[in-house]
Design goal:
Elements lengths: L1 E10 L4 E11 L4 E5 L6 H8 L7 E6 L2 E2 L5 H11 E4 L11 H12 L4 H7 L15 H14 L4 E5 L7 H18 L2 E6 L2 H4 L4 E6 L2 E7 L12
Parallel strand pairs: 3-8, 3-9, 6-7, 7-8
Antiparallel strand pairs: 1-2, 1-4, 4-5, 9-10
Helix pairs in contact: 3-5
Length: 228
């Protein structure tokens, strides 16, 4: 279980308060979507609970381990062993091929079957291509494959289908959710898209740096049942 307790976070020397005493619990195996408009604090909150950012105050505990008290080296090891990320930005290594970018994630988990994931996201014909030779949507698919190849216990996603067309976006979301069910990892996705929230088990709505509402979807929809 991931527990965030009384998280606050400011920037610009405390002048801009982004998170205001936010608390949340996410159960193991849950698919949680954090909804909110631009500036609501959702991406900063994800960065804090994933260990990418430290809060000004409050704590984050993952399966009994308080990660906010870890030093930088230990926090890096925590992310390496337990966490996968898919961002809006691609963060691909420009000198590596598609296959080798994905292999970076796979090697962290000792996963030898990463080729299947590359095929699933539709890049089997681009194995030797460099990021500069790919479209934006193709680069995002490399990021998705790299994160999934790591076989994370908890996967954080920030607008993962933002650069994808509808057909590819639906197929990628469908694959991620199916893989989540098969391997029972926890998934936390940040989005402004209410339609995608209909796929989640738990929906967290944020507004002005606070959680405004948390509710459960009784019957989550598939990627092919939601609007786009």
């Amino acid at each position: 279980m991931l527990i965030a307790n009384n998280i606050s976070k400011s920037f610009n020397g405390g002048k801009i308060q982004v998170l205001k005493d936010v608390s949340l619990e996410v159960a193991d195996g849950d698919f949680a979507v954090i909804l909110g408009a631009s500036g609501s604090g959702k991406s900063t909150f994800m960065s804090v609970i994933s260990g990418l950012e430290r809060p000004d105050s409050g704590s984050v505990t993952y399966n009994g381990q308080e990660i906010t008290s870890l030093n930088d080296k230990a926090l890096t090891e925590f992310r390496k062993k337990h966490v996968g990320f898919i961002f809006q930005q691609y963060y691909l290594l420009p000198h590596l091929s598609v296959e080798n970018n994905v292999r970076l994630g796979a090697d962290l988990a000792g996963n030898k079957n990463y080729g299947q994931i590359i095929t699933t996201v539709g890049l089997q014909d681009k194995l030797k291509s460099k990021p500069s030779e790919l479209s934006g949507g193709e680069q995002q698919r490399v990021c998705i494959a790299r994160a999934l190849a790591k076989e994370p216990e908890i996967l954080f996603l920030d607008e993962p289908t933002g650069a994808l067309d509808e057909e590819t976006g639906r197929s990628v979301l469908d694959y991620i959710v199916r893989l989540k069910r098969e391997r029972n990892f926890t998934m936390i996705m940040v989005t402004h898209n209410q339609n995608i929230a209909e796929m989640a088990d738990t929906v967290i709505k944020m507004n002005s740096g606070k959680i405004a509402e948390v509710y459960k979807n009784k019957t989550p929809k598939s990627a092919y049942e939601i609007g786009w």
